[in-house]
């Protein structure tokens, strides 16, 4: 009988099934370093490209390459629009991503909408809906064209769902459209400030212009996909630019109707992890239902001598995030009834 191979530090209890990469808030611009809106944190606009190149080199060299990479939104900075450099900067970043040997799934954040309209994004290389999985005989799991969301299966019994956190938003939509008027009304009802990006004095500080929310239509679709996953004993990872769990995030960075999204997720057993960007600071918390909420630290505020990305190693009983630079390592055990038995 063959001797058992040595177990590495990342596989203490079980065999590695697959892995995937995560990176957030690259926000590239061909600009000198600047600061965030509060003037408290440095932003490295040019260097973010070098950080991305480093992450891609790392993933390409991994002994067992990731099955895919999740890009969590804000791929180029809003400043590009001011300098009429949106298309040029996006092309540079997308050409860089082409060096990656595995598929990348792109999430849309507020900076995508500072640079481009929703129609433009739908017809751009940032639309990775062509990578979606289609479940035969289950039309209710097919997303509508009204929002940018889809699901895919990187490994049997694991379903990833990419959500559109700006489905309800005043960003990227025509100001004459009913949707814009409806979202502006919601925003103004919760935010009386003249400057709609200011959370000052708000009881619910997430109601600012740089955030958005999930339409009921999208939440109904999410519910249908999670119902299918529950029935088929799948494990689900959800991906969104905006976080939805207050304990893992600055309250100003949450999706407008984060409670509605949590209510859908908590009514199912299959969700194990929720990955988001947006906060730049990162964050983590396991909720009472055993869902791990992970906010990935933003590339844009990462010093040149550091890094900000990670690889998530997936096992039958847990996921292990191996972070680089500012992104810490994390062990995310599944709830007992969620462990897979192979």
UniProtKB/TrEMBL annotation:
It is an enzyme of class 3 (hydrolase). Hydrolyzes ADP-ribose, IDP-ribose, CDP-glycerol, CDP-choline and CDP-ethanolamine, but not other non-reducing ADP-sugars or CDP-glucose. May be involved in immune cell signaling as suggested by the second-messenger role of ADP-ribose, which activates TRPM2 as a mediator of oxidative/nitrosative stress. GO terms for molecular function: 2',3'-cyclic-nucleotide 2'-phosphodiesterase activity; ADP-ribose diphosphatase activity; CDP-glycerol diphosphatase activity; manganese ion binding. Keywords: Acetylation, Hydrolase, Metal-binding, Zinc. Transmembrane segments: none annotated. It catalyses: CDP-glycerol + H2O = sn-glycerol 3-phosphate + CMP + 2 H(+); ADP-D-ribose + H2O = D-ribose 5-phosphate + AMP + 2 H(+); CDP-choline + H2O = phosphocholine + CMP + 2 H(+). Its EC number is 3.6.1.13, 3.6.1.16, 3.6.1.53. Belongs to the ADPRibase-Mn family. Monomer. Its cofactor is Mg(2+). InterPro entries: Calcineurin-like_PHP, Metallo-depent_PP-like, MPP_ADPRM. CDD domains: MPP_Nbla03831. The lineage of its organism: Eukaryota, Metazoa, Chordata, Craniata, Vertebrata. Residues 20-281 form the Calcineurin-like phosphoesterase domain. This is Manganese-dependent ADP-ribose/CDP-alcohol diphosphatase.
